[in-house]
Amino acid sequence: MLILGIDTSCDDTSVALLRDEKEILSNVVSSQVDLHAVFGGVVPEIASRKHLEFIDIIAKEALREGKADYRDLDAISVTAGPGLIGSVLIGLCFAKGLACSLQKPLIGVNHIEAHAMSIFLERDVDLPFIALVVSGGHTMIIRIDEPCRYSVLGTTKDDAAGEAFDKIAKYLAIGYPGGRIIEEYSRKGKKDHVMFPRPMMDDNTCDFSFSGLKTAFINYAKHHRIDEKNIADVLASFQEAVIDVLFQKTLRAVKKTGIPRVVVGGGVASNGRLREVFQERGKEGGLAVMFSSPGFCTDNGAMVALLGHYYLRRGIVSPLDAKAFSRMALPGFMKC
Question: Of 37, 85, 233, 263, which one has the fewest beta carbons inside 10 Å?
């Protein structure tokens, strides 16, 4: 099967061409980082307008790189949510137009599930497994029983982990995207310089909350001077607190389910320290921890095409009046 995957969930416009499960013929990504950097975060209106401007160009480039034509496609897979609703609608409406004009199946997929399944673009993983999806907009723990069958074990009650990184970077005026910049500073810092709180660690759930940690950092910054001498130490301590919470909550999900396999995806999964902590502590706890390559951790059309492949193989497609959604939809939403 030849599937076109489209993702416009946030600020990256991405279109990929996938043959069957593993053969990525193209995976074109147009980033808007420079446009949003001046604001210290993604501006939804700007993001959706740029998607509208570039979606057709990126789609044609993906087909050109994949040496294919629209008429060669077997299906169009697209992110239907969650994400910035204006951005999601651009990709979804474009995909609907293609599906209608080509008389091909439309498959609207869940962006979070696509991140969780992106590992299969590069390797096979025994099922079931626990997936931690951690990005600028989402922090969730999901149990994947098989392709297209999953359940949410935990989610953030407020800020996502990546969002907390971005807001702290914006507060300190050190640049955007915050996660990448904070990681750079933290490499030279002492991880125990400040003992920041670990929110919701004792609540016996797999849920997250990072707004309190963000507030604790800001309160610290108001009462202590942060300059070139100590910024690396302070940011390393903050990063360590975030990663510690992510690991401990994931470990809790493993203990609750008895599933020793963990897959970590999403943009924050590119963080070198996070990978180091999960690999080291996971090994100590007898866990098999796996990461997608950094290029497949960030938003991309290839993971959307892959998930579309799994749904199409099961005969599950979406109607042309499928709706976009900004928050996590319940499992099986495509069957309705």
Answer: 37
